[in-house]
Amino acid sequence: MTVSVRFSESELSRLREYALLYDTSLSDVIRESTMKVVDDALDIQLIESAMDRITKGEMKTISLEKAGEELGFK
C-alpha cells in the first residue's frame, strides 16, 4: 500500500541526512520511525492500563525473586 506524506523542505532534508548517515532508504527511515512511535504509544497504553488495574487491586505484582522461585529457578 502506498501512502503520501507531506514534509517541509527542512524536514525532508533532515530525513535524507539521517538516511545517508545510516545507509538506508528514505522510505525505510519513515516506515521504521513511524512504527517505533506507534509501538511505543501502544506499549505506554498497555503499561498505564496495567498500573491502573494494580492500583484498583484488580491485579497484583510479585518480586522477581518470588517469580523465579515459582518458576523453579532456585
- N-C termini distance: 50 Å
Shape: elongated
Q: Biggest β-sheet, characterized?
A: none
The SS-based structural class is: mainly alpha
Give the number of helices.
3
Which residues sit in consecutive blocks of at least 5 with pLDDT less than 50? none
Determine the mean pLDDT: 96
Can you give a write-up of this model?
The chain is mostly helical and 74 residues long. It has one domain (9-70). The chain is 68% helix and 0% strand. The longest helix is centred in the middle third of the chain and has 30 residues, at 26-55. The radius of gyration is 21 Å and the shape is elongated. The model has no long low-confidence stretch (mean pLDDT 96).
Can I get a quick summary?
With about 70 residues, the protein is mainly alpha-helical. About 70% of the residues lie in helices and about 0% in strands. It is elongated.
Which labels suit this protein?
single chain; 0% strand; mainly alpha; 3 helices; 74 residues
Helices, strands, pairings?
Blueprint: H1 9-21, H2 26-55, H3 64-70
